[in-house]
Structure formats: C-alpha cells, structure tokens
Amino acid sequence: MSANDSQKNPERVAAGLRGTLHNDNVSDEAKDRAADRLHELGGDFENKTSRASAGTGDQHKNQVLGGYKATLHNDKVGEEAKAHAREVLEENNAGEEPLPQSRN
C-alpha cells in the first residue's frame, strides 16, 4: 500500500481494479495483482457498480434513440444516415419528434 492510498476513494480504486480485470490489453500478471488487490479491499466493492447500473438498459436505449433523433435534425448528416436513423426509430416505435428533457 502506498502513502497515497489513504487519500484515494476506495470505491474508485475498486472500479479501476475491476476495469483492469476486464481489459484484454492487460497482462495476466497485472490481472492477478488487480484481483489480489481487489480481494484485499474486501467484498463491499465487488458488486457496487452492478447495483448502481441496474435498470440502465432502458436509459441506454433511450440515449441511443435520442442520438438517432438528433441525426435527423443535423444538417451535416447525409441522407443515407438519416434514412438509417428513421428505420431504427420506426423499428423501435419511436417518433421523430424530440423527447422532453428529463430533470435530475
């Protein structure tokens, strides 16, 4: 443990270690060290991200569809891309009108 570890947010450290475990560009040795370090941090951080992101499937889909709607209103986008956006929106029963802005 380095002297800097006491200043780091343990949840963010755990998130970085989990990212290391899932990164194909990281060596097996580094993944083993990350897994050991994550284990040292304890189980409290193991599933925190998955719980926090539960139910975001609909949110992601809405963001993607919003991107297609934005495509239709962007003058710099070609007609072929706009046609594809219309197809995707029709397949998902989403109209071309803008969605109301959500307030967080």
TrEMBL record:
Composition-biased stretches (Basic and acidic residues): 28-49, 72-89
Region of interest called Disordered, as start-end residue ranges on this chain: 1-104
Domain of life per record: Eukaryota
Pfam families in the record: Con-6
PANTHER family on file: UPF0654 PROTEIN C11D3.01C-RELATED
Name of the protein in question: Conidiation-specific protein 6
Lineage of source species: Eukaryota, Fungi, Dikarya, Basidiomycota, Agaricomycotina
